Fold:
Amino acid sequence: MSIPPLITFQEDFLSGKLISKEYVHFSEIDCPELDVWIGRVVRSISLEFLHEILFTILSELLVNGCKANGKRVFFKEQGLNLWDEKDYARGIPMYKDEFGHNRKRVFLALDHSEYKITLSTIFKEDYIEFKVKNNAKILPEEKNRILKRVQASGKYKNINDAYRESVDNEESSGLGIVLIHILLRNSGISNQFFQLVTTEDSTEVIIRIPKQLIPKENQTNIKNLLVREVNSLPPLPPQIQKLIFIAKKKDVDWHEISAQVEKDPAITAEILKIANSPLFGPHTPIISVLEGVKRIGLRNLESIFLTLGAKKVLNSRYAKQVLVWTHSFKTSMYARFLIEDRKKHLKLLEPAVISALLHDLGRMVLLSLDLSQVNQIRVLRSDDNNEISEWVEEYTLGTTHSEIGYLMSEKWNFPEEILDVIRYHHKPWQCKSRNNILCQIIYLADILANIGRGKGNYFTVEPEVLEYFEITSEKEFRDMQERFKIQFEEHREEYQNLLI
Structure:
């Protein structure tokens, strides 16, 4: 049975006008459409990190509303009075059993009821507000359960703790309320941004997401901390600088540059390892530096030397660099797979492969802040949480790993194409230079490489990027990701040691 037509969203997200979609005679949640909508909303205000969180919360609220409405329809079918204590006590076990075994029938029954759920969003100066409104009056028992869950959620560090205590997730006011508070709290958003509003003929949950999770002044102080950290980074090693200088010469030849590489045994080993890696496609092994630099190519040598220099500085300074290099290599390979698969921009193959290696340099600084800096950040955030999640780590700090990486790459005089990839690999539409397509390639490759880590999906990708790469359906996207995953697994041993 198809879902009835839904009200069209308004497009002017930042005008302050109400954006709403109404689920009339709700039979199921249209998750893909919800996912796309949330993506467009959060991108419009640069809060992409909240996409998955908001999708989880809003879909949970919509399902809860469905369950609450289903209960009302079911009681009416059974000739029971929902507001009578005896009927309620008799009917609830019956409804739980019906919902557990015949959930589809419960939802389909809503198609012929008067109940509806409205999801709306409005932008304010300091926050974005989401409302999920049900045109059904809440029962005292339901309200008490919700308030108890709100109060109880403070003692849970994560959703697993809540499950262990067997929170009732069959009622509309069960585990979902706890989930919402845990997710908001762990995203740096305090419980004051959750509100339950009840009237004689409706029940409304309001979630307000502040556009800035900490005061502007504190964001500036934190950003200054991180900028000082970048400024304290040493220059690239002298031998690397010399190789970069030679690689830039117009009249350089293979013998000159290979002879200079061979003066440093460590760099020699790195060049051979990279030249023999899957970064440059299938090939026979080589053992001479001269063959290695020829395979890499003069056009790419400057970027490879920059990569080796950054590796040397960062690996000696930051403990968690393995995580970044591992993902960067995977993204690099996915960029190769994407270009070969789509058969578009084959001339960008090697620049894409190499720039992908460096796209996440800034993450090393954010992941590897020493304890004193982390404590300062917690004080500035007024945050007692012992874990700074990846999204909060960036958006509450007032800066991103892309911005920090851009500062690092400027300091070390990276070429323009790598500067743009580092800066815009999460927002290629902001890149106005000739490197826009390169940024789009790394953007999509990064998402595809991250899916195995539970980050992103077809609906989180900017629609214009999907259109450009002629990906027209979720199935096509998933098939592509699966192909790339299989191809990548063939090189797992090689990537584990390439830049570590």
